[in-house]
Each structure stands twice: as C-alpha cells, then as structure tokens.
Amino acid sequence: MRSAPAIAFEWKRSCVWRASRRAALAAGVACLAWSGLGAWAKLALILLAAWMELRTVRNEDAWHPSRWKLDGDGGWRWRRDGDDPGEGEATLVQATSLGPMILLDLRASGRRVDLALWPDNLDADTRRRLRARLGKEPAIPRERGPK
C-alpha cells in the first residue's frame, strides 16, 4: 500500500479571524462604556482589555512557523523564515473542523501552536485534502471511561 501524499501549506493570519477579534474587543469596550460602573473602573477595565488584546497579538507574532507539512506517514514538520529561522518536527494533539474552519492544536519545540485555517488563508484543494487526511488519522486515541 502506498503512503498518502504529503500536504504542504503556508500559514498566514486570517483577515476573518482578525476582524472577529477586533469586533469582540469593540463590543466589550462598548458594554463597559455603557455599564453603570464608575469612570475609573470603566477606564481601568477598557485599558486592561486593550492590553490583553495587544499581548495576545504580540505572543502570536513572537514565535509562529509559517510553513507546515503533513508527511505521508502522518508526521508534521514546520519551517520558519525571517529574523529567527528554524525548522523541526511537531506533534498533532487535536484537529477540529468547525464549519469552514479547521483548527489544529500542535506541539512544536515545546510550544503550543494553534493554527486556525480559514477559507481566506488556505486554498480549497489543500483544505479538502487536509480534511480527508485528518478524518482518517485521528490525532490522539481517546480513552474511554468506565462503562
């Protein structure tokens, strides 16, 4: 039996994901602004929300490989270019398909890497092949509890 062909793709941030996070931040800020809290409490919570969003964006940009490859034998490889180049292997912990999005939870170089693959950052053919491979190859066998 032949092994499945490798699937390689370049990951970039999704405009849909970025816009939805900004909309959630704006909704949270609007709710705080219209709440009955005091002015100083509103200001403190709005600044905290903005700081958390900025921190999240910086953490995502700090270490995130952009090139991924699912080998024919099921192994994952990553490569990062730029100021801090590198490459290595990764382990798929969980793969979830939510409507048009594929969520991959990977461990690479001791770090957790979450990839959200939306229609605007992954072409349709690669998305279809990846869904087919992930459907046939579960990431981690789930243990069943007592019956």
Summarize the structure.
By secondary structure, this protein is of the alpha+beta class. Helix content is 38%, strand content 28%.
Short descriptors:
6-stranded antiparallel beta sheet, disordered C terminus, 38% helix, 147 residues, alpha+beta
Strand and helix layout:
Layout: E1 7-10, H1 15-33, H2 39-62, E2 67-70, E3 76-80, E4 86-98, E5 101-108, E6 111-117, H3 124-136
Antiparallel strand pairs: 1-2, 2-3, 3-4, 4-5, 5-6
Helix pairs in contact: 1-2
The biggest beta sheet reads: 6 strands, antiparallel
Number of strands: 6
pLDDT under 50 segments (min length 5)? 138-145
Order of helices and strands: EHHEEEEEH
Termini, distance in Å? Answer: 36 Å
Strand percent estimate: 25-35%
Overview of the molecule:
With 147 residues, the chain is of the alpha+beta class. It has one domain (8-140). The chain is 38% helix and 28% strand. The chain has 3 helices and 6 strands. It has a 6-stranded antiparallel beta sheet, with helices on one face. A hairpin with a 2-residue loop joins strand 5 and strand 6 (111-117). Helix 1 (15-33) packs antiparallel against helix 2. The protein starts with 6 loop residues before the first strand and ends in an 11-residue tail after the last helix. The model is unreliable at 138-145 (pLDDT under 50).
